[in-house]
UniProtKB/TrEMBL annotation:
Its EC number is 1.2.4.2. InterPro entries: 2-oxogl_dehyd_N, 2oxoglutarate_DH_E1, DH_E1, KGD_C_sf, ODO-1/KGD_C, THDP-binding, Transketolase-like_Pyr-bd. It comes from the Bacteria. E1 component of the 2-oxoglutarate dehydrogenase (OGDH) complex which catalyzes the decarboxylation of 2-oxoglutarate, the first step in the conversion of 2-oxoglutarate to succinyl-CoA and CO(2). Its cofactor is thiamine diphosphate. Gene3D superfamilies: 3.40.50.12470, 3.40.50.970, Multifunctional 2-oxoglutarate metabolism enzyme, C-terminal domain, TPP helical domain. This is oxoglutarate dehydrogenase (succinyl-transferring). It comes from Variovorax defluvii. Keywords: Oxidoreductase, Thiamine pyrophosphate. Belongs to the alpha-ketoglutarate dehydrogenase family.
Amino acid sequence: MSDSTSSASIYHAYQGNTYLFGGNAPYVEEMYENYLANPGSVPDNWRAYFDALQHVPATDGSTTRDVPHQPVINAFAERAKLGTMRAAPSSDADSELGRQRTAVQQLIAAYRNVGARWADLDPLKRTERPAIPELEPSFYGFSDGDLETVFNTSNTFFGRDTMSLRDLLNALRETYCGTIGAEYMYMTDQGQKRWWQQKLESARTNPKLSTEQKKHVLERLTAAEGLERFLHTKYVGQKRFSLEGGESFIVSMDELINLAGTKGVQEIVIGMAHRGRLNVLVNSLGKMPADLFAEFDHTAPEDLPSGDVKYHQGFSSDVSTPGGPVHLSLAFNPSHLEIVNPVVEGSVRARMDRRADPQGKQVLPVIVHGDAAFAGQGVVMETLALAETRGYSTGGTVHIVINNQIGFTTSDPRDSRSTLYCTDIVKMIEAPVLHVNGDDPEAVVLATQLALEFRMEFQKDVVVDIVCFRKLGHNEQDTPSLTQPLMYKKISAHPGTRKLYADKLATQGLGDTLGDDLVKAQRAAFDAGKNTVNPVLTNFKSKYAVDWSPFLNKKWTDAGDTAIPLAEWKRLAERITKAPENFTVHPLVKKVLDDRAAMGRGEINVDWGMGEHMAFASLVASGYPVRLSGEDSGRGTFTHRHAVLHDQNREKFDEGTYVPLQNVAENQAPFVVIDSILSEEAVLAFEYGYASNDPNTLVIWEAQFGDFANGAQVVIDQFIASGEVKWGRVNGITLMLPHGYEGQGPEHSSARLERFMQLSADTNIQIVQPTTASQIFHVLRRQMVRNLRKPLVIMTPKSLLRNKDATSPLSEFTKGSFQTVIPDSKDLKAEKVKRVIACSGKVYYDLAKKREEKGSDDVAIIRVEQLYPFPHKAFGAELKKYPNLVDVVWCQDEPQNQGAWFFVQHNIHENLQEGQKLGYAGRAASASPAVGYSHLHQEQQKALVDAAFAKLKGFVLTK
């Protein structure tokens, strides 16, 4: 049986089945969409069938022409069951012609759907083209004799309403199977799909560059290759994560920056890992080569406590584009690959908010990925999941993949992922993908143009996947041929993209010496350490630039003026405790508002939720925006916040909610509270990125339970704790982490305080555990009022949210400030005190209750509210109050190997006098944060409180 006969048999069997299942479903729906756009674009029998379907009632009972697809799909299914899918033909000839017309539509749909599988994408040409019967005319019963038959093609954008099958086939293959392979048919928005069809098919995915543009592309390739070869020769064996084999990426970046400028973009924020980063710094952002060479020579200034390697460093510059100046920022990035993605998105969102640019017309995020990391890192999915949400949208991101086809080190492609393409993850948000052969730099230019145009038109993510190779190993000390011998034989024989393109231009008459002349010019520039990006603007300053100088080199001991006048307190309290007229508040929430109104008048003490609210209200009234995000942050995980009120008679969100904190003053700063997606890593990184670009906004991320921070540990380690000492990046992000031993088991007890203590050095972060409503009020205000921007980690309580002992009188808000140490509140005779129990957090209230039960008047209890930087002056002053002090006991809820004990003991010991002893009272060391049995928790809690008053035993330090 011949191949054509076999394919025809398959097709007839295929046609005999329902069109609604398997690979045929997209064809039918595509035909139906074509019919909706232009009824004359589909065969007569299908048009008659679709005309009849217009009378199928929609879900709302209407019979309009543009009916929803679901009733049509249902009608298809019913007719398929009855075996009446195809309209009855009037004759055998009509039947064959109708079949062919239908087949042509299916053929077109097939190329739009899976034509990319046949695209010429691999510069190394290592794999054969896969067998895809749907792309062969014989699959639909066509023979060579049908190639000259003319068919209606008005549903395409090839410039003609009718084409012969031969011309149509050539046009489809030229468009979808050349050096660009487009994936977009999975998108549900018909307008966006038609946009791609028009853009691709009208040009047949064929770049049309002028002579000058081609010369410029060659110059960019030469610059990219030249830098790598210069470094490879001059700095043998030093790591740089070379771009060789992927030089077309620099062409893409160049086109993206210049085209973005013409479309009104004024800022571009770029995130990328190591591969090609040095090349981007020099050839895209305009870093002086001499400065880069100095880093290789180890002569660069070392003005940071820690510093970082050169391929992690960020950079910013202003470059001239045809549309005007564009500010470029390359985000600092640790080795954790894709973790920079949400940081970039957060930075972009802050810039958008500052510019009042909600659609991202002026600010563009660009994220560069490696193929393996894009497919393998979970934070990629988390970041994509933020793309269409209101609190995190950035108007669409341009993703560029440097696809070296080998993954991180030496992966076998069969083990690198479970998807066909490394980009398949973006289908979750229906982002289109343009796969492009890196050896065709003109196609790379076209793909970049289309990607940016789509992003600017639809404010959606889009991907350019540059399929290339990696000439050297993962780094310059690697030997990849050990594990990929055949691949690297092909790579060693490859002349390089620049050489291929220079030869191509020579054959087009652009000069036989053009390529060599550019190589010599680039080499001379690098030898002189001169800039290769022209022109970089050195004297341009945007009015939207942030001045960080007021926040640099400040001392953390400045408490700031955080109290507010009584009159302002009462005014704000009245504003945040009222709902609009005809707005029905839930009865439980109404009681909260009534109680808060009484607190505002000073009739009852202020609780935690009111203290928080008044901090926020006073800040926005003073011009400091507040951005609070997390899972359940509007209501509060423990229903203590109620920042967002919901009308009980209206379900529609935009109409049925009211945020009092957005209505405290006429010209107030914004208050934004976001119930985030169920993500920790991406959301926290986003908020870090936001805070890194806006020092004047109080940016807070709240974990639903403190242990949820475990899922964001990379962000805490690589950015929050170390960003300042590595990169000099000041950041004032605040973390609220519920923490407290309430008998709720291991995970819901601990926010892993010990981890934050371990990360503390160089006064890099602030760690506090406030125990009263006035303390949370003052510490939140302090974070903005004083000119110090350090990450603030707040161990927030759970039971204290409603504990009357943790409430505060109104006077503590109109006077005073945050107390790093709270003295003993009991009226004790100082000379009688023999023991001081030092503690932090909820356990204080257990200790105070125990002391009352025992009637102990020789024990003082002091609270260390700020654990880092440790408040030596305030703590030492408290100890000195007691002249006959013998013992100091640190008491904590957490197991001995956790919590603050191992990190505060040397600080406490430093403040002891000669002969005084330091002991520990708390749970024994444990592999788990807490027990899971309530009765056992109670026993342990009683035991540790008793131990705080008992004779010292176990671990004791003597001064």
